[in-house]
Amino acid sequence: MNTIIRYLHFANSTQRLLRLCYNCEKLSTCKFLKRYFNSSRLLQYATLGKKQKLHVNIRYNEEYVDVREQLGEEDETVLGLYSGLKNHDRASLARAITLVESGHKKKKKQAQLLLMKILHDNMGEVAHSLSNQQTFRIGLSGPPGAGKSTFIEAFGKYLTGHGHKVAVLAVDPSSSTTGGSLLGDKTRMPELSCDSNAYIRPSPTGGTLGGVTRTTNEAVVLSEGAGFDIVIIETVGVGQSEFSVADMVDIFCLLIPPAGGDELQGIKKGIVEVADMVIVNKSDGDLIPAARRIQAEYISALKFMRTRSKVWKPKVTRISSFTKDGIPELWDTLCDYRKLMNESGEFINRREKQLKVWMWNHIKDHIMDVFCEDQDVENKLPSLETLVIKGAITPGLAADLLLKEFMKKSFKS
Questions:
Q1: Quick check: 121 and 201 in contact, CB under 8 A?
Q2: CA distances from residue 243 to 73, 250, 314, 402 in whole angstroms, order as listed
Q3: Of the four, 65, 142, 206, 340, which is 20 to 30 A from 401 by CA?
Q4: Residues in contact with 13: Cβ distance below 8 Å, sequence separation at least 6, in sequence order
């Protein structure tokens, strides 16, 4: 009965449930759905899904979104990548992530079509199976030198050795001078790179703040569509305020070295406040006493933090990526977290909130793109920049003038 309640909570309503499953081949014969919903309605949606596939009118409130009108028809690129992802082809996953990272207008539409197909498949499979979420998204952050890449290789090899398929999305900082990125994380994971059950994808930040890229969410969805049940996101080496990855994952882990500060550093508001787990790395050799000390400091600091979950209190654990000590225990703790969050319904709630954050992030990015591409803004920008440089007007006034120029069209329309 608890499973049914969680499932209905995920479905939220009859219409939403049917919308998630409209393209499921077993929809019209699903015994669970027949028990709770009208059989003729199920048959109607199943037939609709087989005929129209992705191009159905998606209803919200009293209006409909015509996907075909907004994004166009599925072309050979989209269908080829979709087929490759469903067949768990690693090359297709690489090309799909490259597609969503592209800024070309046509490729953006192709990427949205591909993402919609994968999203519908992923959510439909979860809804039909009546089980909990099939994938586990793990965010990993920490200061430079904490040993994130070394830890991921040791942890990833442990997971693949236990039958899991692991995708690693590593984010590299882009140069503020040249705009380029080294993308060298795979060189620190030589064994995991050669593992057939693992996939490593380094991506540049491209100037995006928060330790992740603009398209990390999309890459996660594509990785899950390609059959990877565990997705690890490694952020750039970050400070106290760069924790955007927490809005993309099921559990956010903060990796720190043995010299990671004192109790006061742990109490400071910032990245520690949103961490679901703190992992002290390099707990081996002469560093074991220091690792134990910092573990005790952070355990004490977390007592003063307000927890984000009603069923989980952040934990502090010690591991060694070199000797592999503590890694099996760490995985057991992560599984306990996943079980508790699933049983309480917070797992699903968190993912639903993350979809809204994902939408708003796109809005912010696209508003800036539209603003910079506006012809009136482009015409006035050089003269206003000159006035700012000469000290004739303040940067704030120049920004207000540009925004007023940009918003004239909005008021006219």
A1: no
A2: 37, 14, 16, 31
A3: 206
A4: none
